[in-house]
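Hi F.,

I've been meaning to write this up properly since the lab meeting, where we talked about keeping a consistent format for the predictions we share between groups. The idea is simple: the sequence comes first, exactly as it goes in, then the structure tokens exactly as they come out, then a line or two of notes. No screenshots and no reformatting. I'm using this chain as the first example so we have something concrete to point to.
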Amino acid sequence: MPHTLLFMLEALACSVGAGIFGALLGLGGGALLVPALTLLLGVDIHYAIGASIISVIATSSGAAVAYVRDHLSNIRLGMLLEVATTSGAVTGAFVGGLLSGPALSIIFAAVLAYSAIAMLRHRSDDLGGITPAHPWAIKLKLNSSYYDKVRGQRIEYNVAGVPVGLGLMYIAGLVSGLLGVGSGVLKVPAMDLAMRVPIKVSSTTSNFMIGVTAAVSAGVFFARGQINPFIVGPVALGVLAGSFLGARLLQRIDSRSIRRVFVVVLVLVSVEMVLKAVGVNWR
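Output, unedited:
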């Protein structure tokens, strides 16, 4: 394992960038951090996933505080969906230890590609109260609103597809434990598309949730010896710093721009991970 000061500085720099994008897109940084560690720094994917799991907790802690304070996160919705994601995280953490590095890379790429394709489905951003609320959402008081600083107005929205959302959140949790990505790569599209929650609320609520999901599976990675302090230290610090910067940027960026960045980043990273898994080095 790399233990040099240069490696730690490089990991820190990569982690700051991953933290910024993670906070902006609700991914927890893992969707970019794992490819960065494996493709750029040559870290074994199992150790990269272990470091990513810890960094996800740091991202959630850094960004979620600002989002909750500004009333962007839907706390009621997040707590409901967390029941499903934590169950899936335990399952994924155990299964991940049984798979090889190339297999994990292929699964990782498939998850990212699915998320990108799902987000390409056109719909108007911030539909607000137009979407009919699911009966469970009414009973559990999940419908809410937030103030959009870009538009200068308060956006009302309803929550749809609650049962479907719970099922997708179990899968998202499984992916989190399996790949160390914070499960935001599935949580955000699930809330945005299946539950019809505005993209800004989806990404901020995802950030609120991912720390709990990651903490559940982190213990399993620690028990397997896949948490290396020389990797985790700079990674956690970098992602935490980046998440604070990303949280500040989110409210100043238009929702459509966030969606476009989300899709482009996921497509590029998924292609890179497939090439690595099959042994192709295009650079």
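Notes:
The chain is about 70% helix and 5% strand.
Residues 5-100+122-256 form one domain.

If this format works for you, I'll send the rest the same way.

G.
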